[in-house]
Design brief:
- The protein is of the alpha+beta class and 459 residues long.
- The protein has a five-stranded antiparallel β-sheet, covered by helices on one side. Strands 17-16-15-12-18 form a five-stranded antiparallel β-sheet, with no helix packed on it. A three-stranded antiparallel β-sheet has the order 6-7-8.
- Strand 9 and strand 10 form a beta hairpin.
Length: 459
């Protein structure tokens, strides 16, 4: 007679009905289940059958369950219950679903810092309470929704590959036989941040022991080497301090690392300190901001702190200055002619719309190229005061406009990608996500609400 599987058995403790097997971690097999009492999805972490007869591992599983229940952080799984099934201990946690950061590849600077602040915060809570945290790895971080991530022991990687996966982040002193310290977690977090920004693990391989040994001698490459388009002295310095080979030279713990990440995120979030990307020499004296817009280097130079200046000289004036001035004059005349024609078209279209109630296409005027601030009636922008932004999200359905900042607030409507909005207030951080209050023109009316500032770009 075959041994029944959990899906064949009655509901655990009379309430948890097993639905599907999701995978296995180091110690447990993970199932999705349904709590029939509270009417919600949960996860069941049932100790693996091949390990259940080992007393040391059984005790370790129970201790981890107790520690998990004692710690509280939004990026750590909430523990609801625990028990035993056929001699195998289990724990019940909140249900999460999503993609691992390993699957996403290289991230933008804003997204990488947004996710890392949540992960580091979760590790800091564990260190403060003395509870073990899940192994630090990009496969152990799941992107749930709206910029929220969860640090957990992933079941999406085969158990035989877990050792090799964790070795990519193993601090060198652990391989040398030294005890676990808070600074060791900082090393792993620094390696993870490098991976999120570059899409590459700085130390990798096919054998866990070989990878672990490499951390004892290999040089951790800089972000500039792995991702040449990114450059920041502050970021490089933070990563050097986090991944220093000697533990005493590192940032001491996750709480201090969290403070420095917050400061870095604040500096990069400011309008006057955009993260600079160096272009190829053929781009001349132009640089590209992280939002992808081209701007003249001298203009940006005035807005950036000294540590982020580009080391380039302004172009020398050629001997033939008068012909250049003539060319500039012709260009200005052409631009003015273009503005007059477009302005006449806009005025005419507005008149037709008012008289015949027909919506005519708008002409996008290159205000940034002209170097002037055009009025709303000429550009077709959303009416009102405040900076103008544009919805920039990869999801086809668009971005949620919410009644208040927060991931669990009411959704007012959906703003399609490319919709222009005016900022009214914010940003402010709620649920670890920066939120911005905006006004959008939908149909024939203006509507206000809150959107995630991670998915808008300034026009």
């Amino acid at each position: 007679m075959s041994t029944p599987t959990p899906t064949d058995l009655p509901p655990l403790q009379g309430r948890y009905r097993i639905l599907d097997r999701l995978g296995a971690s180091r110690l447990a097999v993970v199932y999705s289940a349904y709590d029939e009492r509270l009417q919600r999805r949960v996860l069941v972490h049932l100790m693996r059958r091949d390990l259940a007869n080992q007393a040391t591992l059984r005790e370790r599983f129970r201790q981890e369950a107790e520690h998990h229940a004692a710690r509280t952080h939004r990026s750590l799984l909430d523990v609801y219950d625990s028990g035993e099934l056929a001699g195998r201990p289990f724990i019940i946690t909140e249900y999460v679903v999503g993609r691992t950061l390993r699957d996403l590849g290289a991230l933008s600077l804003e997204d990488a810092l947004l996710y890392m602040r949540q992960i580091v915060g979760a590790v800091a809570v564990c260190q403060a309470t003395g509870a073990p945290h899940p192994p630090i790895s990009s496969t152990n971080v799941i992107l749930v929704e709206d910029g929220h991530v969860e640090l957990l022991e992933s079941w999406q990687i085969a158990p035989e590959d877990v050792a090799r996966d964790i070795a990519c982040y193993r601090p060198p002193e652990r391989t040398a036989g030294e005890p676990v310290t808070p600074a060791g977690a900082v090393y792993s977090l620094g390696i993870l941040l490098i991976e999120l920004l570059s899409g590459k693990r700085p130390i990798n391989g096919t054998d866990a022991q070989q990878i672990a040994q490499a951390h004892l001698s290999a040089r951790i490459p800089s972000i500039a080497e792995l991702q040449p388009r990114l450059y920041s002295q502050d970021l490089e310095q933070l990563l050097r301090q986090a991944t220093a080979r000697a533990p005493q030279q590192r940032i001491p713990d996750a709480a201090m690392f969290s403070q420095q990440l917050d400061a870095l995120y604040t500096r990069f979030s400011g309008d006057t300190q955009r993260f600079i990307v160096q272009e190829q020499p053929s781009m001349g004296d132009r640089v590209r901001t992280e939002t992808g817009r081209l701007m003249q280097a001298p203009a940006i130079r005035k807005r950036l702190p000294a540590h982020m200046q580009l080391d380039t000289e302004p172009p020398l004036q050629a001997a033939g200055a008068p012909p250049q001035r003539a060319a500039v004059g012709l260009a200005i005349i052409g631009i003015l002619f273009f503005v007059v024609v477009c302005g006449a078209y806009q005025l005419g279209s507005l008149a037709v719309e008012r008289l015949a109630n027909i919506r005519l296409p708008r002409v996008e005027l290159p205000a940034a190229t002209l170097g002037v601030q055009l009025p709303d009636w000429l550009t077709g922008d959303v009416a009102g005061d405040g900076e103008l932004f544009e919805i920039a999200i990869t999801a086809e359905e668009g971005l949620n406009l919410r009644s208040a900042p927060g991931l669990n607030t009411q959704v007012v409507t959906l703003l399609p990608n490319g919709t222009r909005v005016r900022r009214i207030a914010g940003p402010q951080i709620v649920d670890g996500v920066p939120w911005m209050k905006v006004r959008a023109h939908i149909g024939d009316r203006d509507i206000e609400g809150w959107v995630s500032a991670n998915y808008v770009r300034q026009v």
